[in-house]
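Consider what follows.

. . .
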Amino acid sequence: MKKTLLLTATMVAVCLYSFAQSVVNPNVEIKDSPATIISKIETDKQYTIVSFDHYAQTDSAWVVLNKEIYIQTDIDNQHYEFVKAEGIAVAPETRHTFAKAGDKLSFKVYFKKIPANAKLIDIIEHAGRRSDGVTYFNFYNIDLTQSNPGEQRVKVTQVVLTPPPVNEQFNTPPNDITNMMSAMGPMYDNLTKVMLSAQLNFYKQPGKLAEIAKVHKQYFDALVKEGFTYDQAIKIVTSSPLIQLTGISGK
């Protein structure tokens, strides 16, 4: 009788463990969004649910989630895809805009349920980085084996622009800075045009465009081979090309 009760209790414990796992403040080896914290990861009968805290780094900062976000585990290359989100705008919805630096947005993202024996996962919204400073919710090597009690926060490092000194006699800013900025504008504009012209001349050389096309095809094939879908690979190649033209901001 005792053996039967012990076996039953063990089976119930195993079932509960497989249906409900959670880790608080998991260790993350690498993340692309320094303003975001993963506060909890839990797996129930249906979903794996990730709770995030995102902090505004500047006044009027904004945030939005892409449906392409998914989880990948250390067990296989399968993508456990996005199901739904709570507390955050999902593209193409209107993005959430913060009032001031330091404001926090807490939200949850529901994914398809990952295997119970997964020990490390990646959460990837968009592989690669943008050159305009926009970051994605990319987190790599998240440890599911250990919780870290306590509240986490991120350091807000807002850039504050200091106005130029005021001329006390006339109560107007000095003209030196204004003249300097006016002189530097055309210089940067001409430099950009020279760089673009040099790039175009380089691409006009025989065989260069075919060589670049071949590199991007190899880039695309490598992404597909690593487990990305064709649509995901196309988005990565188009949004983060290996070779980019320098843009002109002048006339």
Q: What stands out?
A: Residues 175-239 form one domain. The helical segments are 2-19, 175-203, 208-225, 230-239. DSSP finds four helices and eleven strands in the chain. Confidence is low (pLDDT under 50) at residues 5-10, 12-19, 246-251.
